[in-house]
Amino acid sequence: MGGLKMAFLEIKDLKVKIEDKEILKGISLNVDKNEVVALMGPNGSGKSTLAYALMGHPRYEITNGKIVLNGEDVTDASPDERAKKGLFLSFQYPQEISGVSVSNFLRTALNAKRETPISVLDFHKLLQEKMALLKMDKSFAMRYLNEGFSGGEKKRAEILQMAVLQPKIAILDETDSGLDIDALKTVAEGVNSLKGPETGILIITHYQRILNYITPDKVHIVMKGNIIKSGGKELALKVEEKGYDWLRQKAAA
DSSP character for 220? Predict the structure, then answer.
């Protein structure tokens, strides 16, 4: 008899502390390929802590629970092992890397994931294709990574990384923060074009507005390190309408 199909990413009762402070108090959620899961919550609720813990940041200590990727326990795996197995994190505040072009950075990152290096010609073709998809000017590839980039350009560069690296599960941490409406739409279009049978997306956000352009299959609300409510896209709309206070009151009751 066949059992239930496992989601590609399974987070089971995850507890995480930073130094001596427990931030996540038992988070469980799944993200499968070809779906968009939104994790919403007020500032300080533990959303970004989850993102960093999933990628294996050494500052975030997992004290309980498991992270399972494609049926394999990766709770103790190094960040690069997780990346090779298909996990990707788009940072809220991407770092500038002076002297390293966007093109060179992406080719190095892609080769780190591959068994055999991609040829320069094939990589150039792939990069141009993905940049066209994201409506990016060709000159962007030769600029130093994030140096002098606007907020929108930094986010586009993150989505371009995702497009080139083709992860199985992409975690977008507050990708919408600081974006004007045009940049938001471009980033959302890019994300929508990348979601598919081989890629699932976990969107971590404070606001509902990015979900006007990327429709989530599931929405989880996190507060004080716990998921307090789960539902469909209508839950995100309710948060937009009522704010988080109605959930705080509900949780207190």
Answer: E
Domains of the chain in sequence order: 9-96+168-252 (3.40.50.300)
Per-residue pLDDT at 60 exceeds 90: yes
b/e burial code for range 204-234 (CB count within 10 A of at least 16 → b)? bbbebebbbbbebbbbbbbbebebbbeeebe
pTM of the predicted model, to two decimals?
Answer: 0.90
Rounded Cα–Cα distance for residues 12 and 88 (Å): 19
Amino acid (one-letter) located at 82: R
Residue 65: name the closest of 22, 9, 12 by CA: 12
Mean pLDDT, rounded, for 27-56:
93
Q: How far is CA 253 from its chain centroid? A: 32
DSSP letters, 57-85, are -TTEEEEEEEEEETTEE-TT--HHHHHHT
pLDDT tens column, 105-136: 999 999 988 889 999 999 999 999 999 888 88
